[in-house]
């Protein structure tokens, strides 16, 4: 690990941002569950850390007019177990509880979860070529061992998966991200927050330098009757998704009135399948429809030597998640 300096911010987000701006090569630290690993492996080498744990951004509150605001420092376990989330946004609670381990969820924050880095092993190995870690060096994953990599949204520069479970549920729920630059707050639609790799895989989000995530807001529609978060992985816990699907439906009997579908484990960003959602609306829920939807959702998928299986697995995951959601969850 490279030597770094450290300061603890208290007071307002604006003060923390000023502190980070005043230092060369600074980074924010909250839960640190990903950042510290990256620093130990010399993947990230910030010269200064601004600890933001003292900021007042940990609450989960109901919004006037419906919806919920989740502070960026709210811990994953607190969000997952909060009554407002469990009762109104069960797909988010389930997604959070399917990620990592209890110990990590107790530390990891909402803002940090949005920014967690890929688990591509070449990214963590500084002896490997990786355009995301060191732009312009190449990508050892494309012709290497790419079993965990993306089949949707990849480029010739990078096919790394966004590893978050929480992000998949937030994409389905149409969340908004609030970020501050110190002079004011701006709102970003969650589905626009992460970028596709294209030619610049090292730029993963639309955040500007030193902008700080302050909160997530969820719209009123939480889909607490017909929902499913299905995660397929190599072992029952503490494993990243091979494929995951967040489905939220509004049903009128057996007819679908509204549909949301987002995928994890297969995309270079949290993958909202908006185009196929429209094909579900107004239709009667049945397996034939769901199979067509799954085929369409994975139509543009591109497999590599070791991850081709994700295309069929993705289709089956979508069909099963749609069936569970349409059936209603007790
Ligand atoms: Fe790096 Fe992306 Fe290639 Fe992995 S897939 S080695 S993160 S450029």
Descriptors:
330 residues; alpha+beta; Uridine Diphospho-n-acetylenolpyruvylglucosamine Reductase, domain 2; Enolase-like, domain 1; five-stranded antiparallel beta sheet; four-stranded antiparallel beta sheet; 12 strands; 30% helix
Tell me what the structure shows.
Among the domains are: about 5-55, 2-Layer Sandwich (Uridine Diphospho-n-acetylenolpyruvylglucosamine Reductase, domain 2); about 225-325, Enolase-like, domain 1, CATH 3.30.390.50. About 30% of the residues lie in helices and about 20% in strands. It has helices at about 15-20, 35-40, 75-80, 85-90, 90-95, 100-105, 110-115, 120-125, 165-170, 190-195, 275-280, 285-295, 310-325, and strands at about 5-10, 25-30, 50, 60, 70, 175-180, 185-190, 210-220, 225-235, 240-250, 255-265, 270. Helix 12 (about 285-295) packs across helix 13 (about 310-325). The termini are far apart. About 50% of the residues are buried. The mean pLDDT is about 95. Bound molecules: iron/sulfur cluster (SF4). The site of iron/sulfur cluster has 14 residues, from helix 8.
């Amino acid at each position: 690990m490279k030597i770094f300096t450290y300061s603890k911010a208290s007071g307002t987000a604006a003060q923390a941002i000023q502190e980070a701006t005043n230092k060369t090569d600074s980074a924010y630290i909250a839960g640190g569950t990903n950042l510290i690993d990256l620093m130990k492996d010399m993947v990230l080498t910030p010269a200064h850390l601004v600890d933001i744990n003292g900021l007042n951004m940990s609450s989960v509150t109901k919004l006037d007019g419906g919806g919920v605001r989740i502070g960026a420092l709210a811990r994953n376990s607190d969000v997952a177990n909060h009554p407002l989330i469990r009762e109104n946004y069960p797909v988010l609670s389930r997604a959070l509880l399917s990620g990592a381990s209890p110990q990590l969820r107790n530390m990891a924050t909402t803002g940090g979860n949005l920014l967690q880095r890929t688990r591509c092993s070449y990214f963590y190995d500084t002896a490997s070529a990786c355009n995301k870690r060191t732009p312009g060096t190449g990508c050892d994953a494309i012709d290497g061992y790419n079993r965990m990599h993306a089949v949707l949204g990849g480029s010739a520069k990078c096919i790394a998966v966004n590893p978050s479970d929480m992000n998949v549920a937030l994409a389905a729920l149409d969340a908004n991200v609030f970020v501050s630059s110190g002079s004011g707050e701006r709102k970003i639609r969650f589905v626009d927050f992460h970028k596709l790799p294209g030619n610049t895989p090292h730029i993963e989000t639309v955040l500007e330098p030193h902008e700080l995530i302050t909160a997530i807001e969820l719209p009123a529609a939480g889909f607490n009757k017909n929902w499913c978060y299905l995660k397929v992985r190599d072992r029952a816990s503490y494993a990243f998704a091979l494929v995951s699907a967040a489905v939220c439906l509004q049903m009128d009997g057996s007819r679908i009135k509204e549909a949301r579908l987002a995928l994890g484990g297969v995309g270079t960003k949290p993958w909202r399948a908006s185009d196929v959602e429209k094909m579900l609306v107004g239709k009667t829920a049945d397996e034939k429809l769901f199979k067509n939807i799954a085929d369409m959702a994975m139509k543009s998928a591109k497999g590599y030597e070791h991850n081709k299986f994700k295309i069929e697995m993705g289709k089956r995951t979508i069909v099963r998640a749609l069936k569970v959601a349409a059936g209603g969850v007790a």
